[in-house]
Structure formats: C-alpha cells, structure tokens
User: Which sequence fits this backbone?
C-alpha cells in the first residue's frame, strides 16, 4: 500500500509539472517565471527549495551525534543566508532586471569575471544536486524493502525530476514546490505529534536532549574552536548567497518587496521546520535506543526512515515518505534548473552570441539533461554523506564569489582587477589549504580562502589607485 501511495504522489507531481509547462511561452518564463509570482508562491519556493534531503535525513543524523554544534552550517547558516538576502541583497539585484546572477557580475565587472564566477557557481551545484539524487535512491530502496536498489532508485528519481523540470522550468518548480510545501508541513506536524506522544511527550524529549548537551552551539571556547565555529557558520551563510537558485527566486517575484519579504519568511519557516525532523530523530533514541545504536554504526541517516517503518501505522508512513519525497524533489528540481540556466546564459552565449529565443530555450533544456547526467554520475561514485555533500558545495562559492558580490554592490571603489584578484586569491589559497592542511589545523581552509579573497579585492582595487595618486603627487612635486 505504501508503494502505491508513493506512486500516486509521484504521478500527481509530474502532472502538476506538465500543467506548469503550459505557462512557458519564452525563455524568461522558463528561467525566471516571467517576474510574475506573488508572495505565497515565492515564499513556498524559497522554503521548499532549501528544505531538502539534508533537512530530513542529514541534519537530524548529525544532530544525534554532535548536537547543535555539528549543524551550524545548516540550518543556522542557511537561515542567516536567506535573511541576509531578504534584508540587503534582494532589492538591489531585483532592480537590475537581469536573468542570472552571472549577468550581475558581467554588468559590474565585465565578461571575464562573469565567466569565472559562473563556472564556480555551476561546479558548486554538483554536490547539492548529488545529495538530493542520493536521497531519492535511499528512499526508493527503503520503501520497496530492497526490491529497488539505491542505484536504481537514484536513476528513477533523476528521471522523474528531470521530466517535469525539463518541460516547465521555473513554472514547474514554482507550482510543484507550492504543492510539496503543503505535504511537508502537514506531514511533519502530524508526525511530530505522533512520535512525540510515543516518546512520552515533547517536553520529555526536549529535556532529555538538553541534559545530554545537544543544544550547545560550541563546546569549547579555545581560539581554534571559535575559528572553526565561525568557518562553519559562514560557509552556508555567505557561500549560499551568490547562487542562481537564490537569485531566480528573487527575480520571479512581482515586486522587489515581495522578493525581499518572501526570502525572510522562507528563512524563518525553514529554520522552524528543520527543528521537526531533529525532534523526530532524537525521539527515536528514546523510543528504540537499540535501533538507533545500530544505525549510528551503519548509517545514521537511516534512523528516521526505519523508525517510521518499524514503529508507526501506514498513514504515518505515507505522510513521512510523502513529506520526504516532497522535500527532496522540490530541492532537486530547483537546483537542477539553476546551473543549467547559468551555463546557457553566461557560458554558452559567449560562443553562440546570436541565438533566437527558441534556440536559447532549447539550449537550456539540453543543458538540464547534461547536468542531470553529470550529477547522477557524481552521486553514484561519491562516498560522502548527504550533509557533507551539501556543506562542501558552498565552500567554492564562499572563497570565490562572495567578496566580488558584496564589494560590487556596496563598495564603489571595487574594480574588475580587484574582482579577478579576489577570485584568484580565494580559490588558490583554498585549494592549497584544503589538500595540505590536516584536520588539526587552526584555520578552516574555506575561512582562510574567504580572507584571502577579501585581501585580493582590496589589493586589486586599491593598488592601481594608489599608484595613480603617487604619480600625480610626483608630478606636483616636480612642478
């Protein structure tokens, strides 16, 4: 029965995606929804795109082992990212009326910076999309009781998400996200009530977690621990901002106020609902401690699915796996579209500058297929956890794109040379440190890369001006 309900859910989702395709009239409809969406749809997209496999499987598994100290990057860093976008980023970007975040870098710093940062953004999506495809494989394997292997499940899930994203683009993402958000909210609220009651009440679960020190954000206040905390927080908080999926949601709104407010509402909603899977997973350790111990050794991401399958009635299983599939598919569709649009607009157009709107739309769709195949291959051969895949995805944008974005928006003296220096310093130092430092190193490589990127922007932007001023002073002295 569970499999049949899941199949029905998938059919409904694909049907909504195909309906959305009827609204796609041109490439801007496909890439950004034609800047025509109201607050409920934009807020739902923000929430549903971010609330993915890591929120239901990865974050709770990490919390059980490490508490809040282990999940600084996500959800707390992600919450900070979306709040910053709503407070200071959404409005100035919305006014530029551009198709992609790469277009902003082209307008502010020129085509070379556009190309480099667009490639960085595209690469960063590899881990995030792969995490969702891995989770889809796990879900299909679990609900079929092993009849569908994880690999087969990943392929099946990729085909389903690809199908409706390919035809409807941003409109498919928007309408399916809205539907999937409803499933997530209803399913998790019901399960929290059910599982909390099985564990003896929500107050007992929370008190037990507190007594175990799970709500501590940092265990030691030595300099190394503080630096590691800052590095973890900034990875998602800042590294997630220069991303096409964030920009696409800003650009899909009817007005800049909707863009800003929907981002902030999505941030608050995301943080609140990330607490529910955490609560469920920790309650599992009180309901069936032996099962939790077993899966902590084998794969902690399986604790919550097996709790639901072994301890709850069919209706609860339907609600859980409906919510889980909703979370994964909404994130997968949005993150699959974003790098494809970026590649077509900011990389392919350099080599094919003269394209009709139909050719551009076809190019985006072909790129989506290629992107899906590439990320599926990466997911099949990666041995990283879902949480690690998502966290690592944003390190590259943190060290290469954050400083040029903020400097370009808020520092008038930022120059193209400064942006190129920032990219080179940030990427170069991060790659070197990532492969040369041990886990015992004082500086997290991504934090050091961010600081080097900032230094590159300052040196590249100010040195030519200082040189010019020195020359002018010399001329005055000679006169």
Assistant:
């Amino acid at each position: 029965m569970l499999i049949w309900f899941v199949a029905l859910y998938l059919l409904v989702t694909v049907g909504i995606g195909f309906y959305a395709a009827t609204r796609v009239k041109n490439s801007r409809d496909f890439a950004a929804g034609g800047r025509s969406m109201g607050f409920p749809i934009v807020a739902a997209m923000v929430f549903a795109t971010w609330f993915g496999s890591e929120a239901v499987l990865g974050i709770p598994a990490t919390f059980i082992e490490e508490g809040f100290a282990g999940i600084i990057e996500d959800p707390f860093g992600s919450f900070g990212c979306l709040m910053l976008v709503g407070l200071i980023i959404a409005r100035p970007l919305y006014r530029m009326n551009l198709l992609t975040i790469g277009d902003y870098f082209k307008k502010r710093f020129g085509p070379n910076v556009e190309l480099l940062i667009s490639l960085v953004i595209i690469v960063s999506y590899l881990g995030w999309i792969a995490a969702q495809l891995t989770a889809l494989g796990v879900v299909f394997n679990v609900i079929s009781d092993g009849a569908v292997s994880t690999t087969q499940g990943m392929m099946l899930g990729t085909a389903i998400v690809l199908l409706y994203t390919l035809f409807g683009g941003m409109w498919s993402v928007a309408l399916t996200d809205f539907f999937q958000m409803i499933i997530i909210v209803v399913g998790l609220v019901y399960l929290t009530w059910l599982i909390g009651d099985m564990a003896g009440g929500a107050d007992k679960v929370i008190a037990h977690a507190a007594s175990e020190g799970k709500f501590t954000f940092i265990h030691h206040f030595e300099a190394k621990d503080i630096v590691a905390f800052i590095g973890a927080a900034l990875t998602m908080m800042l590294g997630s901002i220069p991303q096409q999926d964030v920009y696409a949601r800003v650009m899909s709104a009817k007005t800049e106020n909707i863009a800003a407010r929907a981002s902030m509402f999505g941030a608050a909603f995301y943080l609140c609902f990330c607490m529910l899977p955490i609560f469920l997973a920790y309650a599992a350790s009180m309901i069936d401690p032996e099962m939790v111990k077993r899966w902590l050794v084998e794969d902690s991401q399986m604790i919550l699915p097996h709790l639901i399958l072994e301890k709850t009635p069919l209706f609860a299983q339907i609600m859980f796996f409906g919510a889980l599939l909703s979370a994964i598919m909404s994130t997968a569709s949005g993150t699959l579209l974003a790098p494809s649009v970026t590649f077509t607009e900011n990389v392919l157009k350099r080599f094919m500058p003269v394209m009709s709107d139909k050719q551009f739309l076809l190019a985006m769709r072909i790129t989506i297929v290629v992107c899906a195949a590439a990320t599926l291959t990466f997911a099949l051969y990666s041995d990283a956890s879902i949480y690690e895949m998502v966290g690592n995805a944003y390190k590259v944008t943190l060290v290469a794109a954050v400083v040029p974005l903020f400097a370009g928006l808020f520092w008038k003296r930022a120059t193209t040379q400064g942006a190129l220096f920032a990219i080179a310093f940030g990427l170069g130092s991060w790659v070197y440190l990532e492969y040369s430092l041990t886990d015992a190193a004082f500086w997290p490589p991504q934090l050091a890369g961010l600081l080097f990127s900032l230094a590159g922007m300052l040196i590249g932007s100010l040195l030519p001006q200082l040189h010019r001023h020195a020359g002018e002073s010399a001329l005055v002295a000679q006169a």
